Amino acid sequence: MTENYAAEAEILKLARVLDVEPDRLAYLARVDADDLQAFREQVTDTLFDANAAVLQRMALAARIVPVGVLAKIAEKVFGPLLCARIAGLVDVARGVDVAKRLSPRFLADVAAELDPRRASAIISRIPLDTVLAVAGELARKEDWITLGRFVGHLPDLTVRRALDRIDDPALLRIAFVLDDKRRVDHVVGLLPAHRLGRLVTAASADEDLWTPALGLLSHLSDARRATLKPLLAGLPDGFRERVQATIK
Fold first, then answer.
1. What integer is the mean pLDDT of 114-122?
2. In three state form, how does the secondary structure of 166-192 look?
3. Burial (0-12, 13-18, 19+ Cβ within 10 Å), 82
4. pLDDT-above-90 percentage for the chain
5. Which of 40, 48, 127, 172 is 20 to 30 A from 7, comparing alpha carbons?
6. Model confidence, pTM
């Protein structure tokens, strides 16, 4: 069951990288989720490493341009895709300074194109208010995949504050596509104690949320799953049986 949910999430993320509809990749549903993730990362690496020499020269040239001017060039000339490609090549302090001068809307567009593995040092140092503004933009766009990819690269305090501003259905969708499933239980632990039960209740009212909710539950610790057993009686038929089978 865990593997099925994880593979479904990986298909959604792979479809995003390949710019195709997830249904076109449905035949991959029986492939091991770890293999799908490895393949997705290989595809991402291929895309980001294309024209690496040119991008490296652009990153070197960016060192001599004043930060304010560079931010204007980034937003008005380079655009989100090119900025995402260069982000992992620039000096960390300079990258943070530029990011602080960009609009949240533009940063959200960059985030959607970015490979957070390559810019983790920059991401982790972006000011809290900026991260919250960008998270708000991504939530407005319902870009759950991008939000899920960045959770593992942000400090716990930032994650906690961001999740406080995201409603329960959105949080379930983000958790479903979280890149590092080993962090699911840790992230849930950052939430107020009552919110896990609230997430399950929210899912019970919308069948579209059943799979994200079950995927979340399958990655929780036994102790955290046990806290949900008193809720089972109030869940609708079908969902109750699947929750019970997941947390047993």
1. 93
2. CCHHHHHHHHHCCCCHHHHHHHHHCCC
3. middle
4. 87
5. 48
6. 0.89
